[in-house]
Design a protein that fits this description.
- This protein is mainly α and about 625 residues long.
- The protein has a domain of about 200 residues: MFS general substrate transporter like domains (Growth Hormone, Chain: A, Up-down Bundle), CATH 1.20.1250.
- The protein has 21 helices and seven strands.
- It has a three-stranded antiparallel β-sheet with strand order 4-5-6. A two-stranded antiparallel sheet has the order 1-7.
- Strand 2 and strand 3 form a beta hairpin.
């Protein structure tokens, strides 16, 4: 299979919204693209015959009416058995990522007690999250520079070695370090697998396969906690890590053997030259910015350090400075980690902004649900976990499948995204009115629609992004989207916790004003939820009322964030993807220049007469 080295010629935006593109004279394809579009204009344009002097003038990002280069789906060039094998391999990585995400919260108290370092148990989750979020953009660079196979195997290697070190750890600090090391791979598992699926399937089917992936992800989430608990009780916590190893090895082997080469080859064939070409300074500033931002919020919410504490504002100030240095660095280098041109499009900016805010609101909402059942309802952790597992698993799978099938049928997703945001808004408001006297089905009826809407919007976000960038920049754009999601999810937990603690402390001061030892009681409640059960009945009711109020404040905050996402979602543009149109394009040729949709002739385009086998 031959593939083409493609370069792009930037176009100029004018204040009248007209677009002027640089193009060589006498280029029939470029003349067609410049022709005004009306109802009679064909959707698919035939590209020019390949000539050494022909260049393709395209944009790397686009709204629904601009020109894109789209790779042909690899699914049509490989056997069904090979396609299914590749999907099984990459989705096993999604399964194991979801498995560990619920297994670790279950294991953390047991491991903390086993090592007699319960105060460090939270770092088992936060260390992994910090590392994985910080390195996601680097995997976008790896995919472009050294290829999908290298990026996926690298992610599996970091995650696998980190998991082995976790299983063999004999000290709490060693285990935390191993979790951070595993997080360096975890950041690439979801991102690279998403890009590989985008390479494999046509755009009209991308949402459907996202639904399948979310079904597998939901299964891993549902199994992680119960299976890890059973393995810990029967064989010890080490086996909860060992059981993840065969799955990640399976993924690495399948990708190494069966993954087809994408139409646009990596820019470097040598590992050393590829690594040397990376923007290491920009990567350093990016990782520093993300890590210090998350640490600053973590010190405030997890360790109750005030905003005025040097460790808190120092971390946040470092994050701001690092962000500024990162942006400056990216404007100076030829191969930036995050192409700043992506932010020139209000459409793509809205996609990433919506993903960030929705993740903030969703995590702030979901993270406080177990707290409500543990403190206010005084039920078991298992019952609270059942609501989270069932609603989370079913909601993620169903929402993505419905959205994927809707888009697959050729419908526009312009209003599907805003509609999907209504359940999170309404559900958060309803949760703020929860009462222990409510029946259990009412809790399910509140949480499940929220997860359905969240999952539906994530599917819309992914397809909207892929439809707006060409294949050359798609890996970095996808990595940026996953970075904003992960950053939003992590900050959502921290910000939600900060809002809850602030509301709780303020209300407790009002409730316990004038009571003997009131400050000591407030401090005990803020540091340990179990302290409420040790209070006399009269004071216990006051404390529970304050706690209930603080949770309501968090869920109102979630509703506000979801509303901001809803408003911002109207800047996400849309197009319809019709099966018959795309099939006609694929019969004529493979990939190519597209005017707001799928195109043809990518395999026939040449840039400076250079074609790579």
């Amino acid at each position: 299979m031959s593939a083409i080295i493609i370069t792009t010629t930037p176009y100029t935006r004018t204040h009248s919204h007209s677009r002027t593109r640089s193009r060589p004279p006498h280029s029939r394809a470029q003349s067609q693209i410049g022709t005004p579009v009306n109802e009679q204009t064909p959707l698919l344009l035939r590209p020019p015959s390949p000539t050494p002097s022909c260049t393709s003038s395209v944009s790397t990002y686009s709204s629904s009416s601009e020109t894109l280069l789209r790779s042909p789906p690899l699914k049509d060039s490989i056997s069904l058995a090979r396609f299914c094998t590749v999907c099984a391999g990459i989705w096993s990585a999604n399964f194991v990522f979801a498995f560990q995400s619920t297994a670790i919260p279950t294991l953390a108290p047991e491991i903390g007690s086993w090592f007699e370092h319960a105060e460090l148990a939270a770092y088992l989750g936060s260390g992994f999250t910090l590392a994985s979020t910080a390195v996601i953009p680097l995997y976008g660079v790896f995919m472009e520079t050294l290829g999908r196979t290298f990026a996926m195997v690298t992610a599996c290697a970091f995650f696998g070695v980190g998991t082995i070190l976790c299983a063999m750890s004999n000290h709490m600090y060693t285990l935390i370090g191993a979790r951070i090391f595993a997080g360096l791979g975890g950041g690439g598992l979801l991102t690279v697998s998403s890009v590989i699926v985008t390479d494999l399937v046509p755009l009209r089917d991308r949402g459907f396969y996202q639904g399948l992936m979310m079904t597998i992800f939901g299964s891993g989430s549902m199994l992680g906690g119960p299976l890890a608990g059973w393995l810990t009780d029967k064989y010890g916590w080490h086996w909860s890590f060992w059981v993840q190893l065969p799955i990640i090895v399976f993924c690495a082997v399948i990708v190494s053997i069966f993954l087809p080469t994408p139409p646009i080859p990596p820019t470097h064939q040598s590992l050393l030259s590829g690594l040397a070409s990376l923007d290491w300074l920009g990567s350093f500033f990016l990782i520093t910015s993300v890590t210090t931002l998350l640490l600053g919020f973590s010190f405030h919410t997890s360790y109750l350090e005030p905003w005025s504490a040097p460790i808190v504002w120092g971390m946040l100030l470092t994050s701001v400075i690092s962000t500024g240095l990162f942006i400056y660095t990216e404007t100076q280098v030829k191969r930036p980690v995050v192409p700043l041109e992506l932010f020139k499009s209000s459409h793509i900016a809205a996609i990433n902004t919506c993903g960030f805010f929705l993740s903030v609101g969703n995590q702030a909402f979901m993270y406080q649900i177990p707290v409500y059942f543990a403190v206010i309802v005084n039920t078991s952790t298992a019952q609270a976990g059942l609501i989270m597992s069932l609603c989370g698993g079913l909601g993620l799978a169903t929402g993505s499948m419905v959205a994927g099938q809707y888009i697959r049928s050729g419908h526009s997703w312009k209003y599907l995204g805003p509609i999907a945001l209504f359940p999170p808004i309404v559900g958060s408001i309803v949760a703020a009115m929860w009462d222990p006297a409510w029946t259990w089905w009412s809790y399910y009826a509140t949480v499940l629609p929220c997860v359905l809407g969240y999952s539906t919007f994530l599917c819309v976000q992914l397809v909207a992004l892929i439809s707006s960038v060409d294949s050359k920049i798609m890996p970095k754009a996808t990595a940026l989207m996953y970075t904003t999601r992960s950053l939003g999810a992590t900050l959502g937990v921290s910000i939600g916790g900060s809002v809850q603690l602030g509301a709780l402390a303020g209300d407790l001061k009002k409730q316990f004003k004038g009571i003997d030892n009131g400050n000591e009681i407030i401090s005990a409640i803020l540091h340990s939820k179990s302290a409420i059960r040790l209070l006399p009945p009269s004071l216990r009711e006051l404390a529970l009322a304050s706690y209930s109020h603080s949770l309501s404040v968090v869920w109102i905050f979630s509703a506000i964030i979801a509303t901001i996402t809803f408003i911002n979602s109207f800047w996400i543009e849309s197009s319809e993807v019709h099966k018959d149109e795309e099939d006609d394009q694929l019969r004529k040729g493979v990939g190519g220049v597209v005017e707001g949709g799928f195109g043809e002739g990518l395999g026939e385009s040449t840039i400076e007469g250079e074609t790579r086998e």
